[in-house]
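STRUCTURE REQUEST FORM
Protein name: F-box/LRR-repeat protein 7
Source organism: Cyprinus carpio carpio
Requested output: C-alpha cells
Priority: standard
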Amino acid sequence: YSTQHTVKLMRTVSTPSPALILPPCSPGVLNGSSTSSSTFGTETIAMVHTPPTSLTHPQRSLRQPRDQQGAPIDILPDHAFLQIFTHLPTNQLCRCARVCRRWYNLAWDPRLWRSIRLTGDVLHVDRALRVLTRRLCQDTPNVCLTLETVVVSSCRRLTDRGLYTVAQCCPELRRLEVAGCYNVSNEAVFEVVSRCPNLEHLDVSGCSKVTCISLTRDVSFKLSPLHGQQISIRYLDMTDCFALEDEGLHTIAAHCTQLTHLYLRRCVRLTDEGLRFLVIYCPSVRELSVSDCRFISDFGLREIAKLEGRLRYLSIAHCGRITDVGVRYIAKYCNRLRYLNARGCEGLTDHGVEHLAKNCLKLKSLDIGKCPLVSDAGLEQLALNSFNLKRLSLKSCESITGRGLQVVAANCFDLQLLNVQDCDVPLEALRFVKRHCKCCVIEHTNPAFF
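Status: completed
Returned output:
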C-alpha cells in the first residue's frame, strides 16, 4: 500500500528496527531484506529487519495516470493513519511498519507507543521487550520517555530478565500488568518499583514467587510512612500470590502508603495481624478483597472497619470465620460502603443483613449467596432500607422463599441483577419480580421461567 509520489516525504531511518510478534512462517526475504531470525516449530519470536525500501510496483505501467498508481488508502493524510493505528495492538502495529516506508515512519510515531500489550504462551516475551524498548530508545538513548503502560499478562515465558529491561528503559512507567507470569520473582519487582517512581498500577496476580513489594532487597526491612522514599503504587493486585504472609503484607503496607485498591484473593496465609498492619500504614484504602483467606475472622473485620467512610468495596467471600459480629463492625463504621461480597460466609445471619441494611444506605451491590442462615426476614430488612440496591445475589440460599423476593421487588425498583440460582422459589415469585423490576436480569435455574 504505497505510492511513488510519497517517497520524497519520507524520512530515512538508517538503523534496523523490529517488526515483532509475527505468526509462525517460513523464513525468507521480507520487503527486500532478510530476516535476522527464524521461527522454530510453532514458536513466535521477535524479528529485526531494515525499513522497507521498495515502494513501487514493477508490474504497473509507468504511463498509468498518477491517481491510478496507488491504492485508495494512500490518499489518507498522516493524522488519519495515526488515528487508525491507535486502535491496533502491539503485534499488528509492528506488522504495519513492514508495509512501506511511509507506514514504517507512522507506525513508530512516539505518540502510538504509550503502551505495549503482548499476549501468548509461546511468545519470546523477554526478547520482544528488549527489541521493542531498544527501538523506542532510538531517539532518546537508553531511556524511553513515552512508554507508560506495559501489559504482558499470561505471557508465561516472561522472566526477571524481561522486567529488568522494562525497569532500565522505562522510567516513566505508570502501569505494569504481569498477571499469570509465575517465573517473576521479588527481585525483578523490586527493580521495577525502584527505577519507576511514577508506577501507580501493578498487577502481579498469579505470580506465586512474589511475596513482597518494597524499595529494599531485604523484604523484612520496614519504612515508616514519614521516613524515606515511598512507592507511589495506588492499585495493587496480588490475587493468588499464595506465599504472601503477614510479614510481607507489613512491608508492602509500610512502603506503599498511598494504596487505594488492594486485592488479596486466595492469599491463604494471611491472618488478622496482616490486616492490622495494612490499616495502620494505608488509611486511604477504598477497595479491599480478602476473599478465600480462610484465617481472616471478625477481628480482621474490626481492623478493616477503622478505614471508616473511605471504604467503598469489600470482598470477604468464603471467609468461614466471619460472623455477624464482624459484619456489624463494618456496617457501623463503613457507612459509605457500595459493594459487599460475603458469599459463603456461613456465619452470617438475618441480624448481620439487618445491620448492613440500616447503616449502609448507599449499598448498591450485595452478594450473600451460600449463606444458609439468611432468610426472608433478612431480605425484608434489606428491601425496607436499601433503596439504592442494583445487584443482589442469593445463589444457593436455601432459606429464601418467594415471599422474600416479592418484598425486595416491591421496594427495590432500580434492581438490575438478581441471582436466585439453586434457590427454591416458585415461578409466581419470579414473574412478580419481572413485573415490578422491568430492567432486572434474573439468573435462575427454573426451566419453566422464560
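Reviewer notes: Residues 1-49, 54-64, 224-228 have pLDDT under 50 and may be disordered. Residues 1-112 form one domain.
Form closed.
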